[in-house]
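To whoever is on call:

I kicked off a structure prediction for a single chain this morning and the downstream step that reads the tokens threw a length-mismatch warning. I double-checked the sequence; it's 267 residues and nothing unusual in it as far as I can see. Pasting both halves so you can look.
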Amino acid sequence: MTPRQSFFACLQRSPPALFEAALWICAEHDSEVDHEAVLANVRELRQRVSGGLPMLPVSELAQPLLRRMNDLGFAQDDATPLRPQAALVNKVLERRRGQPLALGLIALELARGLEIPLVGVNFPGHFLLRVPGADHLLDPCGGRRLYPNDCRDLLHRQYGPNMKLNAEHLMNAEPVQMLQRLSRNLRQLHLSHDDFIGALIDAERVLELGNANAADYLARASLYQRLDCPNAERFDLEHALLLSDDPIQRIRLTERLGHLPPNSIVH
């Protein structure tokens, strides 16, 4: 199977193999990724983390797990500009630096192996974690507890004071949602480093995962524009137009479509 086929096969398992799916994303960008070696590295890390955990019920071990990861050097990657390695889980395991989502995926895999209850939360701008039933969230970058006021402050730092915290921001994330967010992150990181083919690989995965929005089609259309593929660009612009509910955006999309050459048909 191709890495993309293996990626989707991981999602078909019950329960879905979230970390392994994220690892197959790495393999799409680097054919030299040694799948088994990375998984062995995770098992070794799990043993190191486990050895430093306190004797508490598993329901109370999520925050100690995150703090133990931090003690072992795992932290948010603050490099400027941020590179794709901050989102690729194999590179994050090597460097111990990454985006909150990549750190969260590693933490979720460690928690799964140690039977510690932990789920992902697709909080805007900064992926978070939760122990089911707890009254707080956890920052994967060190384990800090976040209560509603902390979440509101985090949201305002990311998006400004006019952004309102709502229940949707605090919902548990399904594996497909986390992997789609990861794919969007990688799409942007590859694009910011002018790796248009790498970004296109991620853009296609975002759409294949389903429930794509107008912005997702626009992102791929822009990549096709850079790669001089007008027919593919037209296809995505037309889909974005169908999905958009912004009147101004619809006008701009219609104008952009009007400037494209007619579809070329190959017989």
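Update from on-call: the warning came from a stale cache, not from the record. Cleared it. Sanity check on the structure: The longest helix spans residues 175-192.
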